[in-house]
C-alpha cells in the first residue's frame, strides 16, 4: 500500500473511532438527561467543594480512625450536612445517605443496579477470593443458592451443638472472676465466638482439639486476625494499597489458606464414609454441592470472617451495655428464671422477648457494621435526598458510590425519639425490625446476612446462661464506649467487670 493511501486509511479509522466515542457519550448524556427529567432529580448538597479528590477527607478520616473517633465524626458530618450529601473519593462520586427510603432502594427495590464495588473486591480479594461476600449479580445469586442450604433450620437451631462450648466458656469466666476479681470479658467472648464459628464450619471446636491441632488453630487465629485487619486497611487505602507493606500480609493470608485447605481435605477424605450424610457442619454440607477445593476454602474463610468476629463484637458490646443497667440484668434474670433450668430449645429462646429486645437494642445503638456502601453499576435514581429540602430524587450515575451510616441512621432522633442514643430495650415492645428500613444491623433485602437467625439464637442462649449463672455483672470501668473499628466494631476497652455468681445455681440442674 502506498504511503498516502495508508495515511488516508489511518485518518478514516481514527476519525470513525473519535466519532464513535463522541456519539456514545452523546447518547449517554441524552439518556441521563431523560432519566433526570423523568424523575425530577436534584442534586444533594456538596459541602466540601474545596476538596475535589477527597484527599482532605481521607486524611481526616484516617486521623479519626486512629484516634478512635471515626464513628463520632461520621455522625457529626450528617448533623452538619444533612441526611443526604455528596463528596468525592478520587475519581468516584460518593453519595452519603441515612434516609431509610434510599437504603430500601439500594438494598431491595433497585438491588441489581448496585454491587459491592471495586474497593471491597480489591481489598478482600487476597483473603476471600471470589467467595459469596465478594461477588455480585447472577454469580452472587448462584453462589448464594449453593450456600444457603447449609443454613437449613435443622443446622442453625441445633442448640445442643453449642452446649459444651458455652459451658466451657462459663467455667473459664467463673475461674477468672472468682474471689471478686475484675475480669475483661471481651477476650472470652471472642474465643467463644471463634469456637462457635469453628463448630458451625467444621463440626468441631478448638476445645476438643488435640494439642498439635490447637497450635495450628492458634496460628490460624493469629494469622486470620492480622489478615482481616490487613484487608480493612487495604479498604481504607483504596487505590493506594501499594503503600501498605504487603509481604507480611500475604504470608498471613497463606497461613489462613493453608489451614483452611487442610480442613477441606479432611472433609473430602471422608466423604465416602457411611455416616457422612449425617454430618451437619457447613463444609460437609457444602461438599454436596461442590467439590472444588478452592471454592470450599474461600467460602469457609468468608464464613469464618462473617461469623466469628461479628458475634464476638456483638457479645462484647451487649455486655458492655448490660453492665451499665442493673435493672435490665434483673429483668433478664426474671425472664430466664421463669423459663426454668431445663435445656432450652430454639423455640424457647425465640420466646424470650426481653432477651431478644436487649440484643436488638444493642445492635441498634452499637451496630457491628456501622457503615456500608454499594457501587452503582448502571445509571439509577435514589428516591429522596436531592434539592435544598432533601425531598427530591437524586440521580446516581454508574460508577458512583452510595454510602450509608447505619449507626447515624439508627440513632436519628426524628425516627427513634429524643432518647435515640440511649439503650432502652423496651422500645422494641411494639416495633418489628423486619419491616423497618431504619434498622439494618444485618442489612435487608436479598443480600441480608445469612447467619442472622443463627447469631440471634446463639447470643440469646449465651445471655440466658450468663444471667442464670451470675446474679450481677458490675462494670468496673465507667468510661463511655470507645470504638475499635476493624471488620466488626466493638468496645476498645473491652468489658471490665466484677461478676457476682448466683450461689443458688447448680450446674446440670
Ligand atoms: C452479630 C452477628 C452478625 C452481624 C451483625 C452480621 C452482619 C452482616 C451484614 C451487615 C452483612 C451484609 C454485608 C454486605 O452485604 O455488605 C452480612 C452478610 C453475611 N453474613 Fe452476617 N452477621 C453476623 C453473623 C453472621 C454469622 C454467625 C454468619 C454465619 C454463620 C454470617 C454469615 C453471613 C454471610 C454468609 C453473609 C454474606 C451474605 C451475602 O452476601 O449474600 N453472619 N452479615
From TrEMBL:
PANTHER family: P450, PUTATIVE (EUROFUNG)-RELATED. Signal peptide: none annotated. InterPro entries: Cyt_P450 (IPR001128), Cyt_P450_E_CYP52_ascomycetes (IPR002974), Cyt_P450_E_CYP52_fungi (IPR047146), Cyt_P450_sf (IPR036396). Pfam families: p450. SUPFAM superfamilies: Cytochrome P450 (SSF48264). Gene3D superfamilies: Cytochrome P450. The keyword Iron applies. Keywords: Iron, Metal-binding, Monooxygenase, Oxidoreductase. It comes from the Eukaryota. Its cofactor is heme. This is Cytochrome P450. Belongs to the cytochrome P450 family. GO terms for molecular function: heme binding; iron ion binding; oxidoreductase activity, acting on paired donors, with incorporation or reduction of molecular oxygen, reduced flavin or flavoprotein as one donor, and incorporation of one atom of oxygen.
Amino acid at each position: 500500500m502506498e504511503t498516502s493511501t495508508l495515511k488516508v486509511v489511518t485518518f478514516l479509522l481514527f476519525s470513525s473511532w473519535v466519532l464513535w466515542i463522541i456519539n456514545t457519550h452523546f447518547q449517554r448524556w441524552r439518556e441521563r438527561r431523560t432519566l433526570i427529567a423523568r424523575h425530577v432529580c436534584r442534586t444533594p448538597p456538596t459541602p466540601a467543594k474545596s476538596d475535589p479528590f477527597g484527599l482532605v477527607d481521607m486524611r481526616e478520616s484516617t486521623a479519626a480512625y486512629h484516634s478512635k473517633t471515626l464513628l463520632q465524626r461520621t455522625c457529626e458530618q450528617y448533623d452538619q450536612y444533612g441526611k443526604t450529601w455528596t463528596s468525592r473519593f478520587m475519581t468516584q462520586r460518593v453519595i452519603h445517605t441515612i434516609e431509610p427510603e434510599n437504603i430500601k432502594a439500594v438494598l431491595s427495590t433497585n438491588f441489581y443496579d448496585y454491587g459491592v464495588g471495586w474497593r471491597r473486591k480489591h481489598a478482600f480479594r487476597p483473603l476471600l477470593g471470589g467467595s459469596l461476600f465478594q461477588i455480585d449479580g447472577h454469580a452472587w445469586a448462584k453462589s448464594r443458592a449453593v450456600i444457603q442450604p447449609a443454613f437449613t433450620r435443622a443446622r442453625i437451631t441445633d442448640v445442643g451443638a453449642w452446649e459444651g462450648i458455652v459451658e466451657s466458656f462459663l467455667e473459664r469466666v467463673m475461674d477468672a472472676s472468682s474471689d471478686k476479681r475484675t475480669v475483661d470479658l471481651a477476650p472470652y467472648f471472642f474465643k467463644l465466638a471463634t469456637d462457635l464459628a469453628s463448630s458451625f464450619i467444621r463440626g468441631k471446636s478448638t476445645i476438643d482439639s488435640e494439642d498439635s491441632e490447637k497450635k495450628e488453630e492458634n496460628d490460624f487465629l493469629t494469622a486470620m486476625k492480622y489478615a482481616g485487619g490487613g484487608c480493612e486497611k487495604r479498604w481504607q487505602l483504596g487505590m493506594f494499597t501499594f503503600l501498605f507493606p504487603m509481604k507480611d500480609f500475604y504470608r498471613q493470608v497463606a497461613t489462613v489458606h493453608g489451614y483452611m485447605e487442610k480442613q477441606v481435605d479432611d472433609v473430602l477424605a471422608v466423604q465416602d464414609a457411611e455416616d457422612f450424610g449425617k454430618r451437619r457442619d457447613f463444609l460437609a454440607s457444602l461438599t454436596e454441592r461442590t467439590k472444588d477445593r478452592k471454592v470450599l476454602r474461600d467460602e469457609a474463610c468468608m464464613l469464618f470472617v462473617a461469623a466469628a468476629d461479628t458475634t464476638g463484637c456483638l457479645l462484647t458490646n451487649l455486655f458492655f451495655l448490660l453492665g451499665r443497667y442493673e435493672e435490665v440484668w434483673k429483668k433478664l434474670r426474671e425472664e430466664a428464671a421463669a423459663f426454668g433450668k431445663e435445656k432450652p430449645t430454639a423455640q424457647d429462646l425465640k420466646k424470650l422477648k426481653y432477651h431478644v429486645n436487649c440484643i436488638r437494642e444493642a445492635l441498634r445503638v452499637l451496630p457491628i457494621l456501622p457503615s456500608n456502601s454499594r457501587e452503582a453499576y448502571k445509571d439509577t435514581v435514589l428516591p429522596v435526598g436531592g434539592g435544598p429540602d432533601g425531598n427530591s430524587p437524586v440521580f446516581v450515575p454508574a460508577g458512583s458510590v452510595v454510602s450509608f451510616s447505619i449507626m447515624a441512621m439508627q440513632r436519628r432522633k426524628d425516627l427513634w425519639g429524643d432518647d435515640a442514643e440511649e439503650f432502652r430495650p423496651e422500645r422494641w415492645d411494639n416495633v418489628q425490625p423486619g419491616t423497618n428500613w431504619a434498622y439494618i444491623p444485618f442489612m435487608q433485602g436479598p443480600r441480608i446476612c445469612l447467619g442472622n437467625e443463627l447469631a440471634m439464637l446463639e447470643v440469646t442462649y449465651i445471655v440466658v446462661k450468663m444471667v442464670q449463672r451470675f446474679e450481677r455483672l458490675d462494670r468496673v470501668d465507667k468510661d463511655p464506649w470507645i470504638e475499635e473499628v476493624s471488620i466488626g466494631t466493638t468496645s476498645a476497652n473491652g468489658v471490665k467487670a466484677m461478676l457476682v455468681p448466683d450461689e443458688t445455681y447448680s450446674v446440670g440442674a
